[in-house]
Amino acid sequence: MKKKYYIIFNTTLFAIAALCLTSCVKDDLSDCVDSRGNVRLTVKLDAKAMTVGLEDYQIDSTHVYVFDDNNEFVTFAAGGVYDPTQEYELFFTLEQSGDYNFIVWTNPGQTYQTNYTVEQCYRHRFTPGQLQYYMSVPEDKLIAQDIDDMLYGATKQEIISHINNTVVVELNPNNYRVNVKVKGLPATDNDFEFTITDNNSHYNFENTITRENIGDFTYIRHASQQEDEESGESELNVSFEMLRLLNEEEDSHTPRFALANATLNNPLYSDNLIAMIRRAYGQSGQALDFEKTHAFDIVLIFDTNMGVTVSINGWEYSPQPGELG
Questions:
Q1: Nearest Cα to Cα of residue 173 among 254, 79, 236, 243
Q2: Cβ neighbours of residue 114 closer than 8 Å, sequence gap 6 or more
Q3: Is-contact 241 177, C-beta < 8 A?
Q4: What is 175-323's CATH number, 3.30.70.20, 2.70.50.60, 2.60.40.2090, 1.20.1250.20?
Q5: Is the pLDDT of residue 27 over 70?
Q6: Nearest Cα to 226, choosing from 268, 195, 187?
Q7: What is the pTM of this model?
Q8: What does residue 302 show for φ and ψ, rounded to 5 degrees?
Q9: Alpha carbon distance 268, 296 (integer Å)
Q10: How crowded is the C-beta side of 213, counted as CA atoms within 13 Å?
Q11: Bridge-based pairing state of the strands 295-302 and 175-183
Q12: By C-alpha distance, which of 216, 247, 46, 54 is closest to 141?
């Protein structure tokens, strides 16, 4: 009798397991927890917020930091290169059900670093406000090349431990493109220097700029005059890929733009970059939103008396003497 009971019991267990497996495979895949992890995190770029076309972003790696409902760090995941025109997936496991905050940064490594290692995050369970993601500035404080694309994304979502969960994080750029064209200067083969000096290199994990004890650094570009194909006139052209610009009334953000004849050591123009942008948009009557506008085309037109007309994204103004510094 015992033997018969044993056989019937095992046969019953096998039948139940087979039924569950059949249901899992054929009927409802959500009942089967993915072997790669119960969280499938999809990263994509928010097309509405991009400075340039999606295909122009270079994302070599991503780091995902996960925080619990107490806002304390719980786990980490890393992904490699992906095509920004496609969705990108990472898998990992969260064993406890609850509300989680998922924070993503792009291109960690040589250009961008964190103030604490992943091991330290596990040990001390830091909050997003305690962690920083920052641009590593050279010792000479000069940024002579375009910086890597720094994008940030965050989303909060409830996770259930025993099922598959899908989380979507949209990335937004912390990079801004500033293109500068200069017209009207006397023709010369001199070297001209363009600089933008700022102190926005550090961000906490809420993507708020941290300025305490952060020194200035300078984006620097050089150019010589080239002849415009249409007008035949000499002009200067440079482009800056720089970190985020903010409304100065909200943040007292004062990046300094300057143009000089480097050969003659002769300053030609200097002003607060955000003040320049605000004046141009003020003349146009257009609303200025740095969260939606990430590219600025600046044209400086010098007259014969070295007076300047400034055009930004097509809106012009003429600086008053007191506005130049």
A1: 243
A2: 108, 131, 132, 133, 134
A3: yes
A4: 2.60.40.2090
A5: no
A6: 187
A7: 0.84
A8: -90, 135
A9: 20
A10: 0
A11: parallel
A12: 216
> Could you give the 3-state DSSP secondary structure of residue 204?
strand
- Tracing tokens 């059949």 back to the chain, one arrives at 22
Question: What would the two tokens of residue 313 be?
Answer: 């994204």
Span 221-258, pLDDT tens digits: 999 999 887 777 899 999 999 999 986 566 677 899 99
Q: Which CATH class is domain 39-173?
A: mainly beta
**Would you say 180 and 239 are in contact if contact means Cβ atoms under 8 Å apart?**
yes
Torsion on CA atoms 295, 300, 301, 303, rounded to nearest 10: 170
Q: Which two three-digit tokens encode residue 91?
A: 């898998």
In the chain, the N- to C-terminal Cα span, in Å, equals 101
Place of tokens 């733009």: 257
| 5-24: average pLDDT | 39
Residue 270 pLDDT? 96
The answer to whether 228 and 200 have CB atoms below 8 angstroms apart is no
